[in-house]
Each structure stands twice: as structure tokens, then as C-alpha cells.
Amino acid sequence: MSFWNMLRIGSSALSAQRLRLDLISNNIANIETTSTEEGGPYRRQDVRFRARESGGGFADLIRSRITGRGSLGQGDGGVQVAEILEDDSPGPRIYDPDHPDADEEGYVEYPNVDLAVEMTNMLSATRSYEANLSVIDAAKRMALKSLEIGK
Fold it and tell me: Could you give the CA distance from residue 61 to residue 17 in angstroms, rounded to a whole number?
């Protein structure tokens, strides 16, 4: 694997985890939002990732044929967002007849966001981000050592 591939893969993972953190932050920020433009309470969002396929260009095809290693579409090109999912599970219904969004029975449906789940996901995303940052840092140190050897 080349230095540039390691950086590209690491940076794609950093971008993916940053998006995940953005969605988690948005979920937490809307934990009390009972009315949205679409109608109803805010719905929790999550992200699904998938392996990003290698470049797929002509140069990659030639390289794979010459070296005999790898093939297009193996998924060795990092990570990308497959989709942003909206959780359709119902949120808690709380009796509050004075709330402007209360139904005929006096209940308000709140978002299906659980702060404990979001904080756990935030810790996981942060750790993943840090791990990928360490990979990029290790690649940088290896490149610098290689340059020192060449002096």
C-alpha cells in the first residue's frame, strides 16, 4: 500500500466519523423538538457506512493487471457514507395537555432520541476518529523516516 493510499483511506475515515459526530450532535440538539416542518417530532438520524471502492480508473486497471494484485471493486479505497437513516421508532408519549403540540388526549410525542445512546455513540465515533488520526500520523512518521534514510 502506498503512502498516498494510506492518507486517502485515513482521511475518508476521518470525514465519515466527522459526519457521524455531526449527526449525533444534531440528534442531541433536537432532543426536545416536538414539531418539525415535516410534521410530528424530530426523528433520530444515524449513518451507514460502506467500503469505498478503489478509484476504478484506467490507471488502476493497468496497475492491477501488471502487478497481478487486487481488482477493481475490492473495496480497498477507504470508507464512504452509504446512507443517512431516519429511525422510525416511536418516541415517548408524555401527558402534557398545556403543550402546544398535545393531541386530543393531552399527550405529546417527543423525539425518539435517547441521550445515553447518543453519548455512547459519540464516544465510539470519537475513538474511531482518534484511531484513524493515529494511522495518518504513523504513515507520516514512516514517510519522514524513509526520507531520513535516503539522506
Answer: 30
Q: Could you tell me the pTM of the whole model?
A: 0.78
DSSP assignment of 22-73, as one string? HHHHHHHHTTT----TTSSS---EEEEEEEPPP--SHHHHHHHHHH----TT
CA distance 18 to 149: 35
For the chain, how big is the Rg over CA atoms in Å? 23
**Residue range of the domain that includes 129:** 3-31+45-86+113-149
Q: What is the pLDDT of residues 108-134, one digit of tens each?
A: 999 999 999 999 999 999 999 999 999
Segment (H or E) for 95: strand 93-95
Half-sphere exposure of 99 (CA within 13 A, CB side): 18
- CB count in 10 Å sphere of residue 15: 16
Q: Does residue 71 belong to any structural domain of this protein?
A: yes
Task: Find out whether 94 and 108 touch, Cβ atoms under 8 Å.
Answer: yes
